[in-house]
């Protein structure tokens, strides 16, 4: 809409002095669109004292954010920012002089609305199948004409039956589909001003999710670290967001739940390390702007059997024991029992032949009843729960309490006055028993008495008695007691005696200097163990017995150091803690006379190179030491023997040098002072001569040794080359060292002219013979180093 205001020109007042005061405005009429800014300048001619502006409502304009005033003596500027429709009208500028006389001028301001699209949203979203209204809010003055375009074609109701342009310029689409999605153009025009503008609006059609699952039920076994994966397929626009739920709670990614989203709308939930509690319903939910859809997946979890209750049981001997085993699992397992001591098994309904064992059970619980419990029932029992998924086994221990039982029938102990003895009372009981000792009707305290002392340990009480007189021998009583009952055992302390005499003394393996004595144990050890046997022997006619003690209680003793061809007497006595018993009957034997030694035993071993080592094993020496071994040897093709004498103390003979690839015959004889033994014959074969190659030469050397030899040879070669260069071409390392030493000597003296005067440096080297070897004579040659670093040699004057 246009607002028209008329410009009124300044009219002189009937009573004013027109020549004195005149007012004018820079513009007469202005068209301004909404939102634009403009300024007006008011100029007064004369002598104004005040310039003021008035709005269309006749109100004096006061400066504000949208209207600013800049006033000088005869000039004032009005600025209107961001004009609005309400700003249209006649604005007056009034000038006042000192007498109060006023003059004014006015300007007409027309405001119109340009084409404006207000808050047009893009994109605009709609749900598939609904009636969509694409909003195009456009204003102008006058009212604009709106035309819609899609894919560069005007939308008309003739060609688009589902499309309609509404009175509010919005585009309505009936039953919108995904095919309607795209960019629509809203074009507005004002013919009066030739003004036209447009806005492109993207329309998005959201399609509700469509959800499907490949498999609706799964089976898994708990506690086997199994995993199961559920898969959902989704479609929709925009792409749906898939979430997984269980028992009303959304599942978040974790170590147990792994959520994977793939292209193509596929979402997978993997449940790891499945446990019994993971069974049940899981929900796959797909959601987007157009809606949501859910599908349920069921997980059936099979649980391997698990024994939840099995406790150790304690029973009293002779009573009944009930052992309970409770197990769970899916499906419910069968329960069986096994006795660890003999491996016997029991299942539901079983009863042992003696009727003492019986099993009853139902609904995952089994009870094993044992009647008349015996000590043999003590031990481990295994409960096993078994189903088609698996099995589980646990063990319990059946403990049996019983009255104390004495473990030994050793009730008689022997000792003698002054000798302490330990009387041991060993008891087996459950629970452990308390033990005490009685003598006649008196209890022996744990602290003991003057000659008794009590030592206690688990299941054992030891009474230490030191008999001082006959009164300390007799009966002692051990009492064992626990909460099951009490038992008694009587012990007798008797006086010990020395052992009786051994018998059946025999001599065996008699030689020139050795004899073996064997005998039978005495019939009585005197009540205390035998410590050892004393064997005495002497030459017949001698009064001096020699003593030999047995090793521990062995009944065989070897006599050594005997004289050949001599008659001896021997007797044996047993010794215990009380003392020595009587001797046995005396037996007589005679050692063998001295004779030639027995043939030596021989074993051979090849030596180094052309040698052979014969090992000599000494046999019976005939009663006298072997003086020497006589070793004869020859080849199998020769007639003459070679002889080698070996001292009798040696245990080997080395034969060398021998021939390669040859068989040898050997004859060895041992000799003592009595004579020669029978010969021992032996044969051996010397192999072919081995090949000596570089490989064999270096085979014994390590890698470091071989490398070192190579470097040494190289270094020697370099030294020889350097010495040759020194003498033949006056160059090389040795030449450099010589020059350096001589130059240093010259520099130190500071007198270069000494060289010119004939003073030269001398280097004495050994003479070499024609064959290259160093001469043994002390002859030398003289080398002169001159100032020009040249070298001249000549023989020593003394040898010229």
TrEMBL record:
Keyword S-adenosyl-L-methionine in annotation: no
Membrane-topology annotation of the record: Single-pass type I membrane protein
Q: Name one GO cellular component term.
A: plasma membrane
State the signal peptide span: 1-20
The subcellular localization recorded is: Cell membrane
SUPFAM superfamilies, A to Z: Fibronectin type III, Immunoglobulin
| Gene Ontology biological-process entries | cell adhesion
Name any one Pfam family assigned in the record: fn3
Top-level lineage group: Eukaryota
Matching entries from PROSITE patterns are given as: FN3, IG_LIKE
Q: What is this protein called?
A: Neural cell adhesion molecule 2
Q: Which organism is it from?
A: Sander lucioperca (Pike-perch)
Give the classification, highest ranks: Eukaryota, Metazoa, Chordata, Craniata, Vertebrata
